[in-house]
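R.M. (postdoc): so does anyone remember the format we settled on? I'll just put the structure tokens first.
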């Protein structure tokens, strides 16, 4: 009967993993698999739970960073996040003290603020370093 519990646990964890695709429950499915094998070999309930906890913990700690690094390396930045590091052109002088400034990037106008409170003149090319809410935080582009 304990083997059936572990088998159900494996299936449930696998289904949750398939639905979420977040590498969150697959480690526990591995622990449940080891506990299931232990139950087939006649291990006590306590030993099955100990094996489940230890194997799940080991899989989580040692394989998750590796899996996250190699499975999520093609992540594409989306929306505003993709603007960080790009160039923009100042179309209205940026003055943090006066709460003024607009920059244009990819054909869109954004409220802009300087990262270091410097005044940045109109028509200056700047680099986007951060986005706070609906404001671009920019710095002067370094000259080559």
């Amino acid at each position: 009967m304990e083997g059936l519990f572990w088998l159900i646990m494996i299936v449930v964890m696998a289904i949750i993993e398939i639905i979420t695709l977040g590498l969150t429950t697959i480690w526990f499915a591995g622990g449940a698999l080891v506990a299931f094998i232990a139950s087939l070999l006649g291990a006590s309930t306590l030993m099955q739970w100990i094996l489940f906890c230890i194997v799940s913990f080991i899989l989580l700690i040692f394989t998750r960073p590796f899996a996250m690094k190699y499975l999520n390396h093609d992540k594409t930045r989306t929306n505003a996040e993709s603007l960080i590091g790009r160039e923009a052109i100042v179309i209205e002088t940026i003055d943090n003290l006066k709460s003024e400034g607009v920059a244009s990037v990819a054909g869109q106008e954004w409220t802009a603020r300087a990262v270091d409170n410097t005044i940045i003149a109109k028509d200056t090319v700047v680099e986007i370093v951060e986005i706070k809410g609906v404001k671009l935080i920019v710095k002067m582009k370094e000259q080559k």
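R.M.: ...and that's the designed sequence above, right after the tokens. Also worth knowing: The mean pLDDT is 87. The chain has three helices and five strands.
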